[in-house]
Structure to design on (420 residues):
């Protein structure tokens, strides 16, 4: 029988990235007494710090799509591939990639698309509600995004995907050479084919969003503990959270610790196949121009956003079983070269390099679920590179579970049971 948490119940949230802070926000407005644990200040311990800042509300496919096996192999043979698996990591990650490839087939693929559609459909509505309540709605814009292709061939190959999105209610419109030149005059004139997606947007600064939400939560009485959680022990009447400062007991706990979530699942005897999907980017403080709308270059795996800190160009997916693996600095050199290819007049002086470990699951669907071992422990993790995009919606789904609501069929795809 599920535990129902009444108003006023104490809930510990482990993780102060965008997903953890959004979870805390939803729980606080439901009337719970919330405490957030993270060894770093809000937003600074993971990929919430310097991610692309985009809200991708029209991505309806998992990373593993039909034909990915051949496409992925071709990518990994390229020098500047947006997909990379270093050295011996290929062997260590083989079981994970077996599940990843299985996602691209039949019912697995259809289920993953359906789950992503559930999240995407409410992304802007839920994010707007959360930011509005925090008084920072002006830091988000629903601008749409330009998807710019390297060739007429890749543009044509993308059209079935855009047709699928249109059928689901996510509108997009072709961009020709003149459209791109008019809206993106800084881009190299070699780019002549694109799509303008309406269901997309960005924020002024992803770290600032987390910090502002945390500030509002503190005003509402939410406590933040800058401590590492070394133990999470559920019992019949509570959950003990152990840190170097001691042990605190709560009525319930939420694991929203990004890539570190897997260690808590392991301690509870549950399988949570998270790996680090490492993203790299460069931020140019004085690029010499201001980008009108966020961009995606699908052929290169590149996302580009105009943020308060500057123009951010990055992306890619370097998979690693060990999130502590040193960063590959050659990727920054490649990004610098690619950035100049896209924007010939780009001023690269003072560029800031960053790499972050995005918590990735093989089916691209986050776990938003009650633990299978304890009715007092919940998970909200595994968002990959959609943490910002889906944070408010996944927090709302989590909140309904904690409040004792039955999980509707559309939300069952997020259960931890699929891996156990």
């Amino acid at each position: 029988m599920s535990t129902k948490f009444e108003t006023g119940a104490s809930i510990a949230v482990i993780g102060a990235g965008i997903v953890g802070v959004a979870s805390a926000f939803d729980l606080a407005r439901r009337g719970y007494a919330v405490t957030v644990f993270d060894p770093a200040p809000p937003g600074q311990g993971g990929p919430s710090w310097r991610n692309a800042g985009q809200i991708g509300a029209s991505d309806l496919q998992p990373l593993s799509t039909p034909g990915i096996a051949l496409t992925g192999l071709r990518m990994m043979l390229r020098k500047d591939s947006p997909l990379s698996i270093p050295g011996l990591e290929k062997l260590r990650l083989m079981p994970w990639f077996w599940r990843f490839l299985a996602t691209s087939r039949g019912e697995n693929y259809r289920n993953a698309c359906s789950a992503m559609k559930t999240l995407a459909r409410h992304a802007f509505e839920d994010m707007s509600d959360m930011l509005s309540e925090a008084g920072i709605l002006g830091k988000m814009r629903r601008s749409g995004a330009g998807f710019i292709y390297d060739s007429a061939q890749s543009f044509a190959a993308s059209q079935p995907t855009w047709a699928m999105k249109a059928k689901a209610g996510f509108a997009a419109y072709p961009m020709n050479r003149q459209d791109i030149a008019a809206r993106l005059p800084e881009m190299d004139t070699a780019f002549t084919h694109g799509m303008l997606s309406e269901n997309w947007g960005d924020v002024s600064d992803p770290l600032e969003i987390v910090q502002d939400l945390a500030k509002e939560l503190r005003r509402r009485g939410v406590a933040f503990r800058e401590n590492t959680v070394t133990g999470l022990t559920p019992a019949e009447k509570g959950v003990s959270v152990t840190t170097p400062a001691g042990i605190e007991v709560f009525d319930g706990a939420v694991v929203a610790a990004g890539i570190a979530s897997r260690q808590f699942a392991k301690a509870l005897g549950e399988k949570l196949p998270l790996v680090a999907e490492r993203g790299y980017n460069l931020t140019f403080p004085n690029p010499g121009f201001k980008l009108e709308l966020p961009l995606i270059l699908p052929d290169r795996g590149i996302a580009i956003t105009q943020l308060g800190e500057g123009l951010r160009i990055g992306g890619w997916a370097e998979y690693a079983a060990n999130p502590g693996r040193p960063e590959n600095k050659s990727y920054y050199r490649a990004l610098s070269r690619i950035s100049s290819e896209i924007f010939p007049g780009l001023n690269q002086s003072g560029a800031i390099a960053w790499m972050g470990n995005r918590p990735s699951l093989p089916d691209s669907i986050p776990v938003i679920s009650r633990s299978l071992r304890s009715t007092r422990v919940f998970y909200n993790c595994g968002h990959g590179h959609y943490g910002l995009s889906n944070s408010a919606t996944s927090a709302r789904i989590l909140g309904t579970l904690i409040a004792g609501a039955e999980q509707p069929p559309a939300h069952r795809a997020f259960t931890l049971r699929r891996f156990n």
Summary: The chain has a mean pLDDT of 90.
